[in-house]
Amino acid sequence: MLNSIFLQSFRSYSKSEFKFGSGLTFIVGPNTSGKTNLIEAIFLLSTGKSFRAENYTQMISFGKDLARVKGMVGDIDLEVVITNEQKKYLVNGVSKRRADFAGHLPAVLFSPLDLDVIVDSPGLRRDFLDFVLEQVDREYRLSVVAYSKALRQRNALLETTQETGVRNEKQFEYWDQILIENGQVITQKRGEFIEFVNASSKDIFDFVMFYDKSIISTERLLQYREAEVSSGVTLVGPHRDDFSVSMFNPSTSSGQAATHDIKFFGSRGQQRLTILQLKLLQLAFIEKNLGERPILLLDDIFSELDEEHIKLVLELMQGQQTIITTTHKEFVPKKLLDKADMIELKSK
Ligand SMILES: Nc1ncnc2c1ncn2[C@@H]1O[C@H](COP(=O)(O)OP(=O)(O)O)[C@@H](O)[C@H]1O
Ligand SMILES: [Mg+2]
What we know:
Layout (H helix, E strand, L loop, with lengths): L1 E9 L2 E7 L4 E5 L6 H13 L18 E8 L2 E8 L3 E5 L2 E3 L1 H4 L5 E4 L4 H5 L2 H15 L1 H27 L4 H31 L7 E6 L5 H6 L1 H7 L10 E8 L8 E4 H4 L2 H23 L4 E5 L1 H4 L2 H10 L5 E5 L7 H5 L2 E4 L4
Parallel strand pairs: 3-13, 3-14, 8-12, 12-13
Antiparallel strand pairs: 1-2, 1-4, 4-5, 5-6, 6-7, 9-10, 10-11
Bound molecules: adenosine-5'-diphosphate and magnesium ion (MG).
């Protein structure tokens, strides 16, 4: 669990420290008081990434050139230092790669931005899969890092090939091998999570997930060899993966139950419930794999969900550290407030 967090020149915080209990903590404050920024900092300690910055330097306070987030997780000291040049990760003061930094503070985040996962571009859906799997699986983290690096190198090679008309087969062989090995690990593990979701019962909203995978293999690369040179980028592999989520509709006149893609046919409300259900299954997946419950970060759920579903979520969050942001204390059921800790943020 997260005992405390210290922020320095991070977004709207110049220097602040917060302590957390093992149960429920409410972060209460008006709009722009820094609630989501604080959640972002916790998420950064968990994954080494932001869930909303396009570029990590956006997390540095305006006019500053170094941001620091430090957290105590049990007796482990986690720290991320961000400058314009780099992000540095430290565990107990020792510098680590991101693959070895992430995983110390498993977390599940539910934020208003999550709705985009269903309706927006495939990149966000791949990020979602990465966030889930990177939490539980070091081999997956290592594969993602190796794959991304090899992909950049191979794309640069394709560009050179395009310019010069000469194909350096030896170099292609080298990077192809790394891409195939790591890409297959990524595909396999993404598939396992999706199978887990499909096999699990869904109390909130029922759906089925389809994995639209882009398999990488020697044969597939060969098949796309010409097309790749003309496009200048690698056309197959998990960096082109996607998934869709479909709901079950009542039987049609032909008597067959039909499924419909929630992205296109779901109401806003159904899309929200899908994401909520998906997040709860993510929690179950992490618990199953790690044998412990992740910290639950709920950003602004009271403005996102109706009363019935808020109640459902609040019932489910027994038994793990939970941090909830809200603009108004009055939104929180009284009996919860009584046993919760509270952090009040002032408007900035
Ligand atoms: N890099 C940054 N430096 C300073 N302030 C920032 C930075 N990024 C965002 N902010 C400020 O943080 C505030 C938003 O904080 P946020 O945590 O999203 O508020 P909320 O409490 O509504 O969730 C805004 O006033 C925004 O201008
Ligand atoms: Mg917010």
